[in-house]
Amino acid sequence: MQPEDLQEVNKDVFKKVSYETDFLIAGGGMSGVCAAIAAARNGAKVILIQNRSRLGGNASSEIRMHISGASALRQVWRETGILEELVLTEAAENPQRSYEMWDFVLYDKVVSEKNITLLLDTAFIDVQVENGSVKSISAICSPTEEIYDIKAKYFADCTGDATLAAKAGCEYMWGREEKSRWNESLAVDVADNKTMGNSLLFMSQKHEKGMPYSPPKWARKYTTKDFVHRKITQWEYGYWWLELGGMEDTVKEGQQNRHDLLSVLFGVWDYIKNSGNHPESENWALSWVGMIPGKRESRRVVGDFIMKQEDIQSPKMFQDRVAYGGWPLDDHPPGGMNTTGVVPYISIPLKGPYSIPFKSLYAKSMDNLFLAGRNVSVSHVALSSTRVMATCATMGQAIGTAMAYCNQHNLSIRQLANGQQQMQKFQQLLLRQDQSILGVGNQDENDLARNAKITASTEIADGLASYITDGINRDIGNGKSHQWRADFKNGEPWITLKWNSPVQMNKVQFLFDTGLHRFLRISPQDTVYFGQERGPQPETVADYTLEVGRDGKYYPLQKMENNFLRLVTHEFEPITTDTIRIKIHKTNGDELARIFEIRCYLE
Prior knowledge:
This protein folds into 3 domains: 15-176 and 297-432, FAD/NAD(P)-binding domain (3-Layer(bba) Sandwich), CATH 3.50.50.60; 198-289, no CATH class; 448-601, Jelly Rolls (Sandwich). 20% of the residues lie in helices and 27% in strands. The chain contains 11 helices and 25 strands. The strands form 7 sheets. Strands 1, 2, 3, 4, 5, 6 and 18 form a 7-stranded mixed β-sheet that branches. Strands 19, 20, 21, 22, 23, 24 and 25 form a 7-stranded antiparallel β-sheet that branches. It has a 3-stranded antiparallel β-sheet with strand order 10-9-12, with helices on one face.
């Protein structure tokens, strides 16, 4: 080949691609996933960017931290809404407990929404701001060699590290505030830049023969005294207390921190295998080692309201409450495994759940930037509770729904936050979609069921038929079950809604019992499954027929088989009737048919 035959090399490798949408969400952890699904289902066009190839963040198979939240109260406050749909789906469709299949439950739910454009392996790199509003962001997808310019009406920072908000110039907090700042008894005496650290997890398996282990030369060495405060009772999955980074910048020092965490992890495994203190580990070997540290804390963006210790321990019903939490005030010392002589956490249990105000879920410095996840507007002390993923997921559903609501009603974020009537209507929308809110009952003026007369073939004393329209969609521990309960002793039970005159409807919605008093989450650790029900929850109605009444007779409108979800919506062509009936054929194992709520709409 002659020099004149050579073509000039095309150096323009990265293709520039432009998008325009209603809502741009940066971060595909649990908060970002729930925000995207909520916004899309409420009619908004959404672009979700995630800098990994998998969704879920700390809950993904790349990190493998199980999702925790208000279930820690061991009451009835397991989070519902989109998160409940996700965990119920995983429990039913992943009996083999494969963490990778949990990733694909999330992926399937996101890509199945026609209003969502999902951009995986896509990292946020820049933001354009004008007059206090975010106008567009830039992102890069190196596997496809594309640079995206994405314009949107609203944006959400669900990155965890508040990367978008920081780059946009929003005011944020870092580290631990002093006691005197907000009169927090659990705060430090003198403010500092220290945070909770990152953790790196591992898994191991038992084999039929001895499995020797030799650590890398750079692994740390540990002795018995290092585990006085860190108990080693199992090693199939470990350990949240493999924690480092709180003394440094958990973002900027991330590369070194990962290596240091690996040296800790292999050092702990070396101790388990070779110290002689755990001979029963002889046949065990590592099967998976995380390479992405799970983060607890970095930036916290300042919103119109900053949640503090008193808002967690002495909760109030915020007028603009849109979610709730219930995890303990669970702070970790910044030294982590560099300070093994110190207890790895201080946990203050809560008496009950607390509400989360909308004013903590958007940036004070920007007109159109929502927040969800561990980067919301909270003090360091409050963060020790709000940071867990079930709580973050409900924040995500709240902001995704809020974005769509603001877009449909031509509202700014603050108009929604500060408008009492608008906020009440918005809360009713959240409640209809099974979002977790405290002390808000169904007062939806469009719900036709509220005006119907309720009768049933049978009911038990603590499960009256009338409870399905009492406005409360779970057992809140006030002496009433708030659900219709019926046995099968005299055949298949049914419940009827009848109106004084015919009504038009094209949508009927059910809320079934899914055992909210139990933990329900995927985990690599067997002991986490004690008390769980893998598969469809036994209390849930599985098979039923929705019937329409005409001339004293009932005709099938829609049938359902093998249901395992809590919230089920039936849509159909508009009908005019004065009666509908649901006939229960079977549950997923419980001896009683149970329904918390029935709603009817014409839309």
